[in-house]
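Please, structure for the following, as tokens.
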Amino acid sequence: MKKFKPSALTLALMLGGVTIASMPTMAVEETDKDKKAIAEAKAKAEAEKDSDVEVIEVRGFRRSLIQSLNTKRYSDTVVEAVSADDMGSLPDVSIADAISRLPGVTAVRSGGQSSELNIRGMSGGFVFATLNGREVVTDQGGRSVQFDQYPSELINQVQVYKSQKASLVEGGVAGSIELQTADALDNDQEHTFTVQTKLSYNDSADEHPDADPLGNRFSFSYQGKFMDDTVGVSLGYARLQQPRISTQFVNYQPRLGVLPFDGAQDGGLTLPTYDENGVQDGTQSGNYIVPQGFELMARGGEELRQGLMGSISFRPNESLTIKADGFYSKFDSQGIDRGYRVNGIGSILDGSSIDFENPILAGENGEYIVGGTYYRDRGDVNDNPPYPRFNNTLTLQTQADDNTTESEVMSFGVNAEWIVNDNLVVDFDIAHSEGESDYRDEVMRLAIFQDASAMNPVVTDDIVVNIETNGLNLPNLSFNQDVTNALTDPNRMMVGSLEKYPHLENNESNSARVDFKYTLDNDHLSSLEAGVRWADRSYKSARKAYNYGDIAGYGINLRNGNYILGYDENGQPIESETYRPYQLQAGDYEIVQLQGEFANFPAFISVDNSYIEGVWLGSEDTQARKDWRYDWTIWQESEIKEETLTAYFQANLDTELFGLPLTGNVGVRVIHTEQNATGVEDPVIKNDGDPITDDFGVTKTVYKHTTLGIDYTDVLPSINLNFQLTDQDQLRFAAAKVMSRPNMSDMAVSGAWSYNTDEFDESVKEADLNRDTSPEVRPFYATQFDLSLEHYFVETDGAIVFALYYKDIENFPEKVTIQNYDFAADGITAPSVDNNGVPVASGDYSVLLNNGKGGYFRGAEIAYTQTFSFLPELWQGLGVAASFSYTESEVTSEFEAVSGLGDQTTPYPFLSPRVWSATVFYDYDDTFSTRVNARYREEYVGNQIAIGDEQKAYFAEELVVDFQASYQFTEELQGVFSVNNLTDEPNRSYFGNEAATGTLQYFGRQFYFGLNAKF
């Protein structure tokens, strides 16, 4: 029987970065015997340098590319890889940038940086991530890992598994991403030091009051071997400090309605009308889609990321290796938003609050109001705030938001590999991972007054807004001259409110596993693998709140200038219920005039939140707390726990089929899961809940504490077959059942009773239960198939790969409503009377459950890599790496792009049908290396980047271009230069039609230049 093992020289050449195109496919088994063979092969290759064998050493980007191709070629699964020569040689800001260039992988940009990764059209929640083979948690409640948390300097290899095998930890329907750090015992040299230092510059930072255009990166890594190469030590530290920049126009979700103006009745959309029985009785024209408001914000601040990695390996003999490693990353992302916000322009639909003229229409039927002139109080017919008869909806505020996030991720583990004998290897591993996040979410608002020095300042009522949105381009915007002048006048602008709404989240995971691998010597199986894994994961979330001057109105009166909240019988203000706005003094503010694309928008006053809080409210206790006045700080506090016990068996193949060499594996993974959550929900009888005390000592019995949970067992079979068609061609087939668990936050306890009239019998009143989240939600399941054909070139390094994939989705978590639900049969006690004592019947149950719906994700990929060594000498270092991915799905989603127009069916969130990436690189004489990379993704449905409530929207296509270059001054010293987002590509979104502008967000270009030293 033919066994596919490479020669020692072949292994050495692979390690040196050279592909042997005629070498048959084999799977490199990671045992100490193999490591010994590799070491011997390397030694032999070194010896042969002085003989008649020429060993070619390849450097630069080409070397990394060949290493990645070798990983793909000799893997037993469908895999993509990013490889580095050693720790610290990846040029990207974070590992997310490098991974997003792989076939079928796309990135979601957060603050201009690649962060969450999508694979084959599926979002980051379906992507599982491990670090050195261990599950890593995020700093938030989602399953999606924020990969910008991981410095590229501390990662030396990434593998993206697109097919599953039984020995891989379950969790990725889209795919699994394995991050690997360096092991000093695998290093060629006894001691190596790498130092990288870079300066950065953002070309749009000068436009922002809170951003320094300059930043810096520094990293240091060391790998050393001691005690006759039995002890290995790896240490790494990486620090990134750079401005956080974005400038954005955000249009709020529009609303459908009838305009009560002459001449509007015959335009817009014509929609059906219905009688009281729900039967269509005609049609009505004059339906328009109207914007509700907008904001213009410049985000400045600073990102500071520090990462620390360390490991120690002990190999006292050829049979035992013990390794302990740890990783720590602290990522503080300061985000200070300055700008203005206009609310209430959608009031033109009721015709009573504001005046509107000069409408600008768009759309096939002129149904979109995309511009016009809006008047707050035309003719001054209302008394201005703070007087009580004020009733106006159009408001203009300038504001300063502090959206700073402080987050930490930590993981560590101990692994022991014991080669019991020539056949049996036992692997033990224990690990801990945790992440926490503190999202500040603070805002200070300013309003325009007629005279800030008056005893009772009066809000300016004469506000005129002229706006015309321009689809996916920036709008035309202006105010009347008095308002334009006031926006930069400290005698007119006053601070009216301070609000704090922090989000606190904590994730924690513990695991232990033992794996066995038994090598066989027969004609069909190379080895058998089996293992057991236990894991425990928990998630805690809490909300707090503070709002200065909030009396029975959540601060809305105060923030809009209606700061006098009580009057005596003579109509005079009651001072005990008066919260004075703050008059700005010299040194309290600065005037901001945006530049670049935003230079035509009016200037405005900006303040520093912390400073104003001190001078205005220095004597106040402004700490945010759990507060019954904001009861969501009570019911949004939750704890979720998840415990799994897993066993797997896998047989590794090494045989022939139809005369073709065949390798691969077949196996099964069995997982038992117990999940439960503790939180609060409505009691059956109003105010008959458990005593719950807030941070002010106030105790109420509004809610009851509840613990809910389920347990279940999953069986996940898998098979991977690799056929060696020729020395250069191989065919892969893979099939598996896979799963992705729901977000931890989706498993929280929730439950709110409401009382409604039965839609079919008005004499019956029902008790309906709503659970937006539920610990009874199950994972997302799919059966997937992969087929790929790989051809590796003979005359030069490179390959072309064709792949087809199909995922059959069983179901997915979705909010469903079950009418006339039998609560008693489910063990739920339903109310017998409503809050007023009126008898009620059991009604509907709205809950997050697996909906039983399904469908396919299917697509095709093509990847092409070529180094043009056959060209004339000067051009031999030229090469290209390109990929194209097409994905389609019958799985859809629904959301209401326009409020009042009803849900519309859309593609599944984050699915971009077409994605491509292309890199052109050039290496010259082992001294100069350069590359240009372009990443494209087609439009998709995602979450709008906005301040305040999350909104779904359509995102336009985007093309991100990066450039890198390096020059090797000496063997030890390298100069580097790079530009991220070379074309300043913005994020652009819209609400169903490009005429309904969503978010337009610009980030600027980021330049890096510096030195790398290795010795």
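Residues 396 and 468 are 17 Å apart (CA to CA). Confidence is low (pLDDT under 50) at residues 1-58.
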